[in-house]
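In this supplementary section we document a worked example of the pipeline. Step one takes a protein sequence of length 319 as its only input; no multiple sequence alignment statistics are reported here. Step two produces a three-dimensional model, which step three serialises into C-alpha coordinates for compact storage. The input and output of this example are shown verbatim.
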Amino acid sequence: MDPIVRTVTGDLPPGQLRRTDMHEALLRRSPLRPEDALDDVDLSGTEARDLAGAGIDSIVELTPPGLGRAPSGLAAIAQYSGLAVIAASGTHRAEHYPEEHWIRALDEDKLADLIARDITHGCIGEDGEPAQPPGVEDGPELRAGVIRVGLGYWRIGALERRFLAAAALAQRLTGAAIICTLSQATSAVEALETMTAHGVRPDRIALSRIDHCPDAVLHAELAAAGAYVCYTGAGHHVWPDAHILDCLLSLVERGHASRILVGGARGGAARYTAYGGMPGLSYLPRRFLPRLRSVAGSAVTDTILERNPARLLTLAEPG
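The serialised model returned by step three reads:
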Protein backbone atom coordinates (compact mmCIF):
# COMPACT_ATOMS: atom_id res chain seq x y z
CA MET A 1 0.00 0.00 0.00
CA ASP A 2 1.31 3.44 -0.89
CA PRO A 3 1.69 5.77 2.11
CA ILE A 4 -1.54 7.71 2.68
CA VAL A 5 -3.17 10.06 5.14
CA ARG A 6 -6.95 9.65 5.33
CA THR A 7 -8.97 12.89 5.22
CA VAL A 8 -12.73 13.43 5.04
CA THR A 9 -12.40 14.41 1.40
CA GLY A 10 -10.17 11.50 0.38
CA ASP A 11 -6.74 9.98 0.88
CA LEU A 12 -3.63 12.12 0.38
CA PRO A 13 0.09 11.43 0.07
CA PRO A 14 1.64 12.45 3.41
CA GLY A 15 3.68 15.22 1.80
CA GLN A 16 0.51 17.06 0.82
CA LEU A 17 -0.49 17.71 4.43
CA ARG A 18 2.15 20.44 4.83
CA ARG A 19 1.56 22.72 7.86
CA THR A 20 -0.67 20.82 10.28
CA ASP A 21 -2.59 21.87 13.38
CA MET A 22 -2.77 18.61 15.32
CA HIS A 23 -5.54 19.33 17.83
CA GLU A 24 -8.78 21.23 17.15
CA ALA A 25 -12.55 20.86 16.98
CA LEU A 26 -14.80 22.28 14.28
CA LEU A 27 -18.15 20.64 15.04
CA ARG A 28 -18.78 19.40 18.58
CA ARG A 29 -21.64 19.23 21.05
CA SER A 30 -21.31 17.86 24.57
CA PRO A 31 -23.73 17.71 27.50
CA LEU A 32 -20.75 18.65 29.67
CA ARG A 33 -20.57 22.13 28.10
CA PRO A 34 -23.78 22.75 26.14
CA GLU A 35 -23.22 26.51 26.12
CA ASP A 36 -19.94 26.06 24.24
CA ALA A 37 -21.24 23.97 21.34
CA LEU A 38 -19.72 24.22 17.87
CA ASP A 39 -22.85 23.41 15.90
CA ASP A 40 -22.97 25.84 12.97
CA VAL A 41 -21.29 24.62 9.78
CA ASP A 42 -21.16 28.12 8.32
CA LEU A 43 -19.56 29.71 11.38
CA SER A 44 -17.10 26.86 11.83
CA GLY A 45 -16.32 27.07 8.12
CA THR A 46 -15.54 30.76 8.49
CA GLU A 47 -13.21 29.98 11.41
CA ALA A 48 -11.51 27.23 9.39
CA ARG A 49 -11.05 29.53 6.42
CA ASP A 50 -9.40 32.10 8.67
CA LEU A 51 -7.04 29.41 9.96
CA ALA A 52 -6.15 28.44 6.40
CA GLY A 53 -5.60 32.09 5.49
CA ALA A 54 -3.17 32.42 8.40
CA GLY A 55 -0.96 29.66 7.00
CA ILE A 56 -2.30 26.27 8.13
CA ASP A 57 -2.90 23.63 5.45
CA SER A 58 -4.29 20.68 7.44
CA ILE A 59 -6.14 20.14 10.68
CA VAL A 60 -6.80 17.16 12.92
CA GLU A 61 -10.41 17.44 14.12
CA LEU A 62 -10.67 15.44 17.34
CA THR A 63 -14.42 15.20 17.92
CA PRO A 64 -15.29 11.52 18.39
CA PRO A 65 -18.67 9.96 17.51
CA GLY A 66 -21.54 10.63 19.88
CA LEU A 67 -20.55 14.22 20.69
CA GLY A 68 -21.89 16.16 17.72
CA ARG A 69 -19.35 14.88 15.23
CA ALA A 70 -20.79 15.64 11.79
CA PRO A 71 -18.67 14.06 9.03
CA SER A 72 -20.69 15.59 6.20
CA GLY A 73 -20.32 18.99 7.85
CA LEU A 74 -16.57 18.47 8.16
CA ALA A 75 -16.41 17.63 4.45
CA ALA A 76 -18.30 20.83 3.64
CA ILE A 77 -15.93 22.86 5.82
CA ALA A 78 -12.91 21.24 4.17
CA GLN A 79 -14.22 22.13 0.73
CA TYR A 80 -15.06 25.70 1.75
CA SER A 81 -11.83 26.43 3.63
CA GLY A 82 -9.33 24.49 1.54
CA LEU A 83 -8.04 22.71 4.65
CA ALA A 84 -7.32 19.00 4.62
CA VAL A 85 -9.41 17.73 7.56
CA ILE A 86 -8.47 14.51 9.32
CA ALA A 87 -11.46 13.32 11.35
CA ALA A 88 -11.29 11.23 14.50
CA SER A 89 -13.04 8.17 15.75
CA GLY A 90 -12.77 6.95 19.33
CA THR A 91 -13.82 8.49 22.63
CA HIS A 92 -13.49 11.57 24.84
CA ARG A 93 -12.98 11.51 28.61
CA ALA A 94 -15.75 9.92 30.66
CA GLU A 95 -17.23 13.21 31.90
CA HIS A 96 -18.61 13.94 28.43
CA TYR A 97 -20.88 10.87 28.52
CA PRO A 98 -23.93 10.82 30.81
CA GLU A 99 -24.95 7.46 32.22
CA GLU A 100 -27.52 6.90 29.46
CA HIS A 101 -25.10 7.64 26.60
CA TRP A 102 -25.00 4.80 24.09
CA ILE A 103 -21.21 4.65 23.96
CA ARG A 104 -21.08 3.46 27.59
CA ALA A 105 -23.03 0.35 26.57
CA LEU A 106 -20.41 -0.82 24.06
CA ASP A 107 -17.96 -3.44 25.21
CA GLU A 108 -14.31 -3.34 24.12
CA ASP A 109 -14.81 -5.39 20.96
CA LYS A 110 -17.90 -3.51 19.78
CA LEU A 111 -16.27 -0.14 20.38
CA ALA A 112 -13.11 -1.24 18.57
CA ASP A 113 -15.24 -2.44 15.67
CA LEU A 114 -17.03 0.93 15.48
CA ILE A 115 -13.70 2.79 15.46
CA ALA A 116 -12.20 0.49 12.84
CA ARG A 117 -15.27 0.80 10.61
CA ASP A 118 -15.13 4.60 10.86
CA ILE A 119 -11.61 4.42 9.45
CA THR A 120 -11.84 1.61 6.92
CA HIS A 121 -15.44 1.74 5.68
CA GLY A 122 -16.97 5.10 6.58
CA CYS A 123 -18.05 7.19 9.54
CA ILE A 124 -21.41 6.87 11.16
CA GLY A 125 -23.39 10.07 11.57
CA GLU A 126 -25.02 11.19 14.80
CA ASP A 127 -28.14 9.26 13.82
CA GLY A 128 -26.17 6.02 13.48
CA GLU A 129 -26.50 5.99 9.71
CA PRO A 130 -23.54 6.18 7.30
CA ALA A 131 -22.43 9.74 6.66
CA GLN A 132 -22.31 10.99 3.08
CA PRO A 133 -20.49 13.93 1.51
CA PRO A 134 -22.62 17.05 1.00
CA GLY A 135 -24.53 17.04 -2.27
CA VAL A 136 -23.43 13.55 -3.25
CA GLU A 137 -25.99 10.77 -3.62
CA ASP A 138 -23.71 7.78 -4.09
CA GLY A 139 -20.26 9.22 -3.45
CA PRO A 140 -17.39 7.71 -1.47
CA GLU A 141 -17.82 7.18 2.24
CA LEU A 142 -16.47 9.82 4.60
CA ARG A 143 -13.76 8.13 6.65
CA ALA A 144 -11.88 9.00 9.82
CA GLY A 145 -8.08 9.05 9.78
CA VAL A 146 -7.04 9.02 13.44
CA ILE A 147 -8.14 7.49 16.76
CA ARG A 148 -8.82 9.74 19.73
CA VAL A 149 -9.07 8.75 23.38
CA GLY A 150 -9.41 11.16 26.30
CA LEU A 151 -8.56 10.88 29.98
CA GLY A 152 -9.70 12.92 32.97
CA TYR A 153 -7.58 14.44 35.72
CA TRP A 154 -5.41 11.70 37.27
CA ARG A 155 -7.93 8.99 36.49
CA ILE A 156 -7.93 5.79 34.46
CA GLY A 157 -11.04 4.06 35.76
CA ALA A 158 -12.83 1.01 34.42
CA LEU A 159 -14.54 2.96 31.62
CA GLU A 160 -11.30 4.65 30.57
CA ARG A 161 -9.48 1.31 30.55
CA ARG A 162 -12.16 -0.05 28.23
CA PHE A 163 -11.78 3.02 26.00
CA LEU A 164 -7.99 2.63 25.92
CA ALA A 165 -8.20 -1.11 25.20
CA ALA A 166 -10.70 -0.52 22.36
CA ALA A 167 -8.54 2.23 20.86
CA ALA A 168 -5.51 -0.06 21.01
CA LEU A 169 -7.39 -2.91 19.32
CA ALA A 170 -8.70 -0.55 16.62
CA GLN A 171 -5.18 0.77 16.09
CA ARG A 172 -3.88 -2.72 15.47
CA LEU A 173 -6.75 -3.39 13.06
CA THR A 174 -6.33 -0.19 11.03
CA GLY A 175 -2.79 1.15 11.46
CA ALA A 176 -4.16 4.60 12.38
CA ALA A 177 -2.40 6.65 15.04
CA ILE A 178 -3.87 7.25 18.50
CA ILE A 179 -4.03 10.76 19.93
CA CYS A 180 -4.58 10.63 23.69
CA THR A 181 -5.82 13.93 25.13
CA LEU A 182 -4.87 14.45 28.75
CA SER A 183 -6.47 16.57 31.45
CA GLN A 184 -3.76 18.95 32.69
CA ALA A 185 -1.19 16.49 31.29
CA THR A 186 -1.85 13.98 34.07
CA SER A 187 -1.66 10.20 33.56
CA ALA A 188 0.64 10.57 30.55
CA VAL A 189 3.06 7.85 31.64
CA GLU A 190 0.22 5.57 32.70
CA ALA A 191 -1.67 6.10 29.43
CA LEU A 192 1.41 5.28 27.38
CA GLU A 193 2.15 2.19 29.46
CA THR A 194 -1.45 1.00 29.16
CA MET A 195 -1.60 1.37 25.38
CA THR A 196 1.79 -0.22 24.77
CA ALA A 197 0.78 -3.12 27.04
CA HIS A 198 -2.12 -3.62 24.62
CA GLY A 199 0.31 -3.93 21.72
CA VAL A 200 0.48 -0.39 20.31
CA ARG A 201 3.94 0.82 19.32
CA PRO A 202 4.89 4.08 21.08
CA ASP A 203 5.55 5.78 17.73
CA ARG A 204 1.84 5.36 16.87
CA ILE A 205 0.81 7.36 19.96
CA ALA A 206 0.64 11.11 20.53
CA LEU A 207 0.01 12.57 23.99
CA SER A 208 -1.80 15.89 23.64
CA ARG A 209 -2.09 18.86 26.00
CA ILE A 210 1.24 17.74 27.39
CA ASP A 211 2.39 21.32 28.03
CA HIS A 212 -0.47 21.91 30.47
CA CYS A 213 2.20 20.58 32.81
CA PRO A 214 5.40 22.41 31.72
CA ASP A 215 7.73 19.62 32.83
CA ALA A 216 10.34 19.32 30.09
CA VAL A 217 11.94 16.33 31.80
CA LEU A 218 8.65 14.45 31.68
CA HIS A 219 8.17 15.41 28.04
CA ALA A 220 11.67 14.19 27.21
CA GLU A 221 11.05 10.87 28.95
CA LEU A 222 7.89 10.31 26.90
CA ALA A 223 9.64 11.27 23.67
CA ALA A 224 12.61 9.04 24.51
CA ALA A 225 10.13 6.18 24.96
CA GLY A 226 9.08 6.78 21.34
CA ALA A 227 5.80 8.68 21.78
CA TYR A 228 4.90 12.03 20.23
CA VAL A 229 4.12 14.95 22.55
CA CYS A 230 1.68 17.62 21.36
CA TYR A 231 1.95 21.17 22.68
CA THR A 232 -1.46 22.85 22.74
CA GLY A 233 -1.14 25.51 25.43
CA ALA A 234 -0.40 28.58 23.28
CA GLY A 235 -2.91 31.32 23.94
CA HIS A 236 -4.53 29.49 26.86
CA HIS A 237 -4.65 30.66 30.46
CA VAL A 238 -2.64 27.72 31.80
CA TRP A 239 0.89 29.05 31.14
CA PRO A 240 2.30 32.04 29.22
CA ASP A 241 3.51 31.29 25.70
CA ALA A 242 7.08 32.05 26.81
CA HIS A 243 6.97 29.14 29.28
CA ILE A 244 5.69 26.81 26.57
CA LEU A 245 8.41 27.90 24.15
CA ASP A 246 11.08 27.33 26.81
CA CYS A 247 9.74 23.84 27.44
CA LEU A 248 9.57 23.03 23.74
CA LEU A 249 13.10 24.33 23.12
CA SER A 250 14.39 22.22 26.00
CA LEU A 251 12.97 19.16 24.28
CA VAL A 252 14.66 20.16 21.01
CA GLU A 253 17.97 20.61 22.80
CA ARG A 254 17.62 17.11 24.28
CA GLY A 255 17.41 15.73 20.72
CA HIS A 256 13.67 15.11 20.48
CA ALA A 257 12.55 17.53 17.76
CA SER A 258 11.25 14.57 15.73
CA ARG A 259 8.65 13.82 18.42
CA ILE A 260 7.07 17.28 18.86
CA LEU A 261 3.66 18.34 17.51
CA VAL A 262 1.63 21.53 17.95
CA GLY A 263 -2.08 22.31 18.02
CA GLY A 264 -4.44 25.02 19.18
CA ALA A 265 -7.05 23.02 21.14
CA ARG A 266 -9.42 25.97 21.36
CA GLY A 267 -12.24 23.57 22.17
CA GLY A 268 -15.44 25.64 22.23
CA ALA A 269 -17.41 28.56 20.84
CA ALA A 270 -16.18 31.05 23.45
CA ARG A 271 -12.69 30.84 21.93
CA TYR A 272 -13.75 31.09 18.25
CA THR A 273 -13.91 34.52 16.63
CA ALA A 274 -16.61 33.41 14.17
CA TYR A 275 -18.84 32.58 17.18
CA GLY A 276 -18.04 35.92 18.82
CA GLY A 277 -15.21 34.76 21.07
CA MET A 278 -11.42 35.04 21.31
CA PRO A 279 -8.61 34.38 20.40
CA GLY A 280 -9.65 32.16 17.48
CA LEU A 281 -8.04 29.21 15.74
CA SER A 282 -5.66 31.52 13.90
CA TYR A 283 -3.84 32.40 17.15
CA LEU A 284 -1.56 29.42 16.59
CA PRO A 285 -0.20 30.44 13.15
CA ARG A 286 -0.46 34.20 13.65
CA ARG A 287 0.95 34.58 17.13
CA PHE A 288 2.69 31.43 18.36
CA LEU A 289 4.35 29.91 15.30
CA PRO A 290 6.26 33.09 14.33
CA ARG A 291 7.73 33.14 17.84
CA LEU A 292 8.62 29.48 17.56
CA ARG A 293 10.32 30.07 14.22
CA SER A 294 12.28 33.02 15.60
CA VAL A 295 13.72 31.05 18.54
CA ALA A 296 13.95 27.53 17.09
CA GLY A 297 14.70 28.30 13.44
CA SER A 298 12.93 27.30 10.26
CA ALA A 299 14.30 23.76 10.06
CA VAL A 300 13.03 22.77 13.52
CA THR A 301 9.71 24.55 12.98
CA ASP A 302 9.14 22.78 9.68
CA THR A 303 9.95 19.45 11.32
CA ILE A 304 7.38 20.10 14.05
CA LEU A 305 4.72 21.54 11.76
CA GLU A 306 5.10 19.38 8.66
CA ARG A 307 7.33 16.31 8.85
CA ASN A 308 6.23 14.98 12.24
CA PRO A 309 2.47 15.18 11.54
CA ALA A 310 2.93 13.54 8.13
CA ARG A 311 4.85 10.66 9.72
CA LEU A 312 2.39 10.10 12.56
CA LEU A 313 -0.79 10.44 10.48
CA THR A 314 0.32 8.09 7.73
CA LEU A 315 -1.68 4.88 8.04
CA ALA A 316 0.70 2.10 9.02
CA GLU A 317 0.29 -1.54 8.05
CA PRO A 318 -2.22 -3.08 10.49
CA GLY A 319 -0.98 -5.58 13.00
